[in-house]
Design brief:
The protein is 39% helix and 12% strand. By secondary structure, it is an alpha/beta fold.
Length: 138
């Protein structure tokens, strides 16, 4: 991957971590990075969502430990409010100003830049992390 290239290969974003854990590490190719999407919490009425994301959090940590000896890194990205047609319909500017200390939604390019970095050789010692990209939301 070329440094600064924001086109993260589809096979990295949608890696088959189960196959990798089962000794079929070649499914990840030469890059050997796995980047997952995660969240840190759900809202009221979203217990099922929060439980699923907690499972992904645990899987990220466990897979990182299991695959580290094979040179495979596993990390998750936990995005906050990211500008999209869906978030535009769900959040007004006033709501974003109240929820996000940086007073704006993130951009898809900002998330892609983080995923690209995590999938690069420069992040080869970062593993088992859930990285929030959320404008300082707590």
């Amino acid at each position: 991957m070329v440094a600064g290239d924001r086109r993260v290969p589809e096979r990295i974003l949608q890696c088959d971590a189960t196959a990798a854990a089962a000794d079929d590490c070649d499914t990840l190719g030469a890059d050997r990075q796995c980047v997952l999407a995660a969240a840190l919490a759900g809202n009221r009425g979203q217990t099922n969502y929060a439980a699923a994301k907690a499972g992904l959090h645990g899987a990220t940590k466990s897979l990182a430990l299991e695959l580290a000896s094979r040179g495979i890194t596993v990390n998750a990205i936990a995005p906050g409010i990211i500008a999209s047609s869906m978030s535009d319909a769900a959040f007004t500017k006033a709501m974003i100003d109240q929820l996000v200390p940086m007073k704006r939604a993130g951009t898809p390019d900002e998330v892609a830049d983080l995923a690209s970095y995590l999938a690069s050789e420069r992040a080869g010692y970062i593993s088992g992390q859930i990285i929030s990209i959320n404008g300082a939301m707590i």
